[in-house]
């Protein structure tokens, strides 16, 4: 098994930052807000490895910084520090030292992202098919017929009714919008996919079918995924390994069943004990 | 003599519950070996930490003490207590299986899919995997009309056969069994015992906990008796 992503010491601070920021924030002091300069230490010193075809869960409550991790890796937000190496077959990319054009290329060709809020992942002013076409165009597929065929195949795979290919996503149900987002993210067959709370807020039956779909895709395409969620059930179902975050720091990492059955950190023990 | 596939040396497990500020002893100073084609049985009173030994080997629990030396298919020896998470996942996929008393599966998966799952994880094509699952289920005398529905509605005995079939299908080199015949009627238990004997003769190494002493007598090549762990105060002295 080969490594696809290596993250080391990833940090993100909102605000001016001061020398006391790091010691004044984190799980020990129960805050991510620096009392000295008012900066928010969203994440600090986050490190992990991801292997090809593997699903890693990132869990924690809101404000733990879990979404910031994937947003930094997908270039939505520039980190304040740290590095990430993306191993793409025989090449390797040092993500945060690439220029904007190179980052855009990776985003469009080699990464995929599915957001909790479909507004962020989809253009609501163009059709479902158009959304996928947009991503295919960015990745250099230019033939209209070929694009339309591929868009249809993707939507069929994610179980979106083909009769709705030309409808605007804003007229879709929440579950359907997530399916279109997944289809769009998969359009370029990326080896690395980020999923940020993708089933949060959907009703249970829709959640289950989306999670099944994600598992099927992972088995078919061997896509490596980083799955961010506060839902222990989602972690249990999808992830082989998981990291637990609190106030911007990783407090525990392990095999998913070990974290759920033999959690080591006081916070993880409380989290697991509060599961329904 | 061929070295054992598994050698456990002074294994210990205790839980540190931060919220209640408590230390819960589970297994204490457990040592034994498991050999290819043989079955080692763990016996001892409730609370002696038998299941916790199995979970420690599978790394569902993080061991607190001791070494768990495993010899892999290539002949390399590694300590499962210290192995990386990726190494453990790979061993679970290819070499080490675990059958518990309970079947965890999704209520929307068919029995055939549940049983075929470990083969799919190894990259076996879906149809082929389902074919193997079907053969195994018919050998276990699970009625064919049940294959296309979820095990969620099955009786205890039917469910346990599905659970065992899933544990057996990928022919693990080391199989951990936690009371696999506990909820079965005598006829089904007999069928499961036959399957375990079959696996042994095929060379699978097994570490098992059985509900009935009679089953242990029939199947075990080695029996290891576990004593209850020492009281917390004793344990604290030892750790300090």
How large is the count of helical segments of chain B? 8
* Overall strand count of chain B: 9
CATH 4th-level superfamily of the largest domain in chain B:
P-loop containing nucleotide triphosphate hydrolases
Radius of gyration of chain B: 18 Å
- The low-pLDDT segments of chain B are none
Question: Helices and strands of chain A: which structural class?
Answer: alpha/beta
Q: What pair of chains forms the biggest interface?
A: A-B, 23 and 18 residues
Descriptive tags:
heterodimer, A: 276 residues, alpha/beta, 6-stranded mixed sheet, 4-stranded antiparallel sheet, globular, B: 240 residues, Rossmann fold, 5-stranded parallel sheet, 37% helix
Describe this structure in words.
Chain A is globular. Chain A is built from 10 helices and 10 strands. Chain A has 276 residues and is an alpha/beta fold. A 6-stranded mixed sheet of chain A has the order 6-7-8-3-9-10, sandwiched between helices. In chain A, a hairpin with a 2-residue loop joins strand 9 and strand 10 (249-255). In chain B, helix 3 crosses helix 4 (126-139). Chain B is built from 8 helices and 9 strands. Chain B starts with 5 loop residues before the first strand and ends with a helix. Chain B has 2 domains: 1-95 and 174-185 and 205-240, Rossmann fold (3-Layer(aba) Sandwich); 103-171. At the A-B interface, helix 7, strand 10, helix 9 and helix 10 of A face strand 1 and helix 2 of B.
